[in-house]
Amino acid sequence: MRVLNSVVALREQLGEERSQGRRSALVPTMGFLHEGHLSLVDRARQLADLVVMSIFVNPLQFGPREDLAAYPRDLERDLALAAERGVDVVFAPSAEEMYPTNPPQVTIHAPRLSDRLCGRFRPGHFEGVLTVVAKLFNVIEPDIAVFGQKDFQQSVLIRRMCQDLNMPVQIEVAPIVREADGLALSSRNVYLSPEERRAAPTLHRALRAAQSLVAQGETDAGRVRAAAHEVLAAEPLIQTQYLELVDPLALDDVQQVRPGDVLALAAFLGRTRLIDNTVLG
Ligand code: PAF
């Protein structure tokens, strides 16, 4: 596995691979890898000859009161896990390498899709995500990029960016990986106290309650949301930030549930904000 920190070195290496006709798949990450990220590597491996992983905690997607400084980092461990899982090239740039002209004057906005769900509570977050992903696409020129369904809104925005800006990257979205008790894997799970960790699977239980109502034939979005809400409300350690049932392209609220609609939520357990979602129908 090659580890590169500079754009010039990376372009040189990947240019050579491309000239030999090798198709590449990118797995963009912010590091502190867990099985969720590694499942994206497995998917990338199935789809391409060369698996490239980026590890970069992107300052542009953190708000002024968010956890940029405290965001968990362990590059050495990440590199060992990536190598073990079969990543071919890791790109791990510094903030100066990614943003030599800081702050960038040209960024990517998608206000209509960004102001929904998580974006409503994290102004500027998706502008930061889209901008760094566009930069990674420009530097790496992958054929495919693999993202996780846990960041549902992010994947919708990135797909739309590729469509609207003619970026020739195939976007793949891999399923959420969960602990045995249902908690979706997240780098932020390490922040949870033991009591919060015990309460955290309630998020998944709430989504499952909604799913089973839909499986019984319920199509009224209000009732489906209420079923999930009831489960969340019964856990005093959870403060729900949003619980919304949306269509998977425009992210508009739906009144009648159709197959493919997504129930998405964000909730605080103490100071830790977790997200989760499920596809209904
Ligand atoms: O999903 C993430 O970890 C990040 O938002 C991403 C896509 C790597 C961009 O920084």
In short:
The chain is of the alpha/beta class and 281 residues long. It contains 11 helices and 9 strands.
Strand content: 15-25%
Cα-atom radius of gyration: 19 Å
The sequence of SSEs as H and E is EHEHEHEHHHHEHEHHHEEE
What is the global morphology? Answer: globular
- What is the β-strand count? 9
* Oligomeric description of these chains: single chain
Q: What is the element layout, followed by pairings?
A:
Layout: E1 2-4, H1 7-19, E2 24-29, H2 35-47, E3 50-55, H3 75-85, E4 89-91, H4 95-98, H5 111-114, H6 117-121, H7 125-140, E5 144-148, H8 152-164, E6 170-174, H9 194-199, H10 202-215, H11 221-233, E7 238-246, E8 262-269, E9 272-279
Parallel strand pairs: 1-4, 2-3, 2-5, 3-4, 5-6
Antiparallel strand pairs: 7-8, 8-9
Helix pairs in contact: 7-8, 10-11
The structure holds pantoate.
Describe the protein's architecture and organization.
The chain is of the alpha/beta class. Helix content is 40%, strand content 19%. The chain has 11 helices and 9 strands. It has helices at residues 7-19, 35-47, 75-85, 95-98, 111-114, 117-121, 125-140, 152-164, 194-199, 202-215, 221-233, and strands at 2-4, 24-29, 50-55, 89-91, 144-148, 170-174, 238-246, 262-269, 272-279. α7 (125-140) crosses α8 and α10 packs antiparallel against α11 (221-233). The longest helix is centred in the middle third of the chain and has 16 residues, at 125-140. Bound molecules: pantoate (PAF). The site of pantoate has 10 residues, from β2 and α7.
